[in-house]
Amino acid sequence: MTSDQVPGGPFDDPDYRAGVVELLALLSYGELSAVEQLNQDSQDAPDLRTKVAIQTMAASEWSHFVQLRDRLVELGEDPYAAMESFRTTFARFHGKTEPSDWLEGLLKAFVGDGLAADFYREIAAFLDADTRQLVLETMSQTGNSEFVVDQVREAIAADPRVAGRLALWGRRLMGEALSQAQMVVAERDVLTAVVVGAADRPGGFDLASIGRMFTRITEAHAQRMARLGLDA
Amino acid sequence: MTSDQVPGGPFDDPDYRAGVVELLALLSYGELSAVEQLNQDSQDAPDLRTKVAIQTMAASEWSHFVQLRDRLVELGEDPYAAMESFRTTFARFHGKTEPSDWLEGLLKAFVGDGLAADFYREIAAFLDADTRQLVLETMSQTGNSEFVVDQVREAIAADPRVAGRLALWGRRLMGEALSQAQMVVAERDVLTAVVVGAADRPGGFDLASIGRMFTRITEAHAQRMARLGLDA
């Protein structure tokens, strides 16, 4: 019996249920859109080995997508209809962060992979057992983006000016991600309540807890940028 | 112990070994190039559900690629160097069969998937036990292209003129595939010997046996086209 089938369980609360469905749809669309971005990046790969490394990342995100989509189906939802409502969010983000070359694409993949993992980790604690397990399982399969670290460090070693340009690009990526996240928070009460663990608290969520979550994610991003030799 | 480690086994013959390495490289590059073509196709998908169906095909071809590549590694080969030598073959094929719209892309994916399965089936009997098992395992995972049948039949029902155009396109795809295959036969003796089962026969392969294989594959193609409601 999964969490949604337990009488008196968290899914008896229609707001929690609606919030989890929105969350799974958001994560699904995010994974699918990561796959598409990586597919595009891999077209510009300088050699077969690197192309395959990028497609290996894409395959990992794809398996996350499949798990999340299948959970939406288990919950009796049409996954594509649920995902459709997040199309604009991701179109806005990708439209404003179109990589202008191979290195920018690599950095975007790396930053995106890291932000997703941080976000999954942040929200896991607040979810029912089955949704939490799903989120933690999908998150645990990251790590395929590690080859980016070498590639970026090599590019900086070859031309130190690259560091300044990529640092700027990293700030733009983070800024756009936060800006889209804030729009989602503003537009989606039930989703936000689930994400900050306020679904079962009277009075709902407070904006300060969201602000603290964004701060923690920004700090983790800065540490990742530092591993690449880049200022955040 | 795998076939290549058996003393006195088929891999003791340097021609057989070289032929199998070329075969695995050819199949790997073919699968990777199918993934890339499907990735491109999925960009034009009319809706999320169809996009995901195309990406599901791509994920299946990707898993074939990974198995074939890993076998090259097991054999002590650099898979990317081995694959590199087939770049021109696939670039020529894809350069001459660029789909001009969504339906042509779908048909190309369907035809390519079917031809690959036919080819795998043709050659399986002539391979050592491990290579045969690998080839049969990757082949058994096809079937994700079945949704193409519905899509093409619907498009023809909506506009019967589509059938003529797609039939022509199917003939062009098959013609180009055979033309590239004939070039591979002309250029690659050890590969061809393995593929037609002549690696262990004195006197090598005869062109007639290759002709018969191409004829059987062409007949299977015609049957697939008929299922779509198209003349071959």
Automatic annotation (TrEMBL), chains A, B:
InterPro entries, alphabetized: Ferritin-like, Ferritin-like_SF, Ferritin_actino
Protein name per its UniProtKB record: Hydroxylase
Signal peptide per UniProt: none
Record CDD domains: Ferritin_like
Domain Ferritin-like: 15-197
Species for this entry: Aeromicrobium phoceense
SUPFAM superfamilies listed in its UniProt record: Ferritin-like
Superkingdom: Bacteria
